């Protein structure tokens, strides 16, 4: 898997108005692997990256979140063995 250095801000930052007025040009840049930060009221609002990188980033985020959830789970305790389960079933059948 590739590793990338992620700068604090994408080098190509445009206002939402600029983006609207030059949509096609910015889409072409993004398709050519140039990320673009779109600002709204002077603050970063959207980061556009090409589709393949976006899918990869989304999958990495999903994996990271899954690992975090799994790490929060407490290990199960007192799990019966197969023999103990068989014995419990036999005991229950006697009462039926």
From TrEMBL:
InterPro entries: Antitoxin_Phd/YefM, YefM-like_sf. It holds the Pfam family PhdYeFM_antitox. It comes from the Bacteria. Belongs to the phD/YefM antitoxin family. Antitoxin component of a type II toxin-antitoxin (TA) system. This is Antitoxin. It comes from Conservatibacter flavescens.
């Amino acid at each position: 898997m590739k590793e990338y250095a992620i700068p604090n801000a994408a080098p190509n930052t445009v206002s939402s108005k600029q983006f609207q007025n030059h949509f096609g040009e910015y889409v072409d840049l993004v398709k050519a692997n140039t990320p673009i930060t779109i600002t709204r009221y002077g603050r970063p609002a959207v980061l556009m990256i090409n589709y393949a990188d976006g899918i990869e980033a989304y999958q990495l985020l999903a994996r990271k979140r899954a690992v975090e959830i799994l790490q929060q789970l407490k290990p199960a305790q007192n799990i019966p063995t197969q023999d103990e389960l068989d014995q419990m079933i036999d005991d229950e059948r006697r009462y039926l």
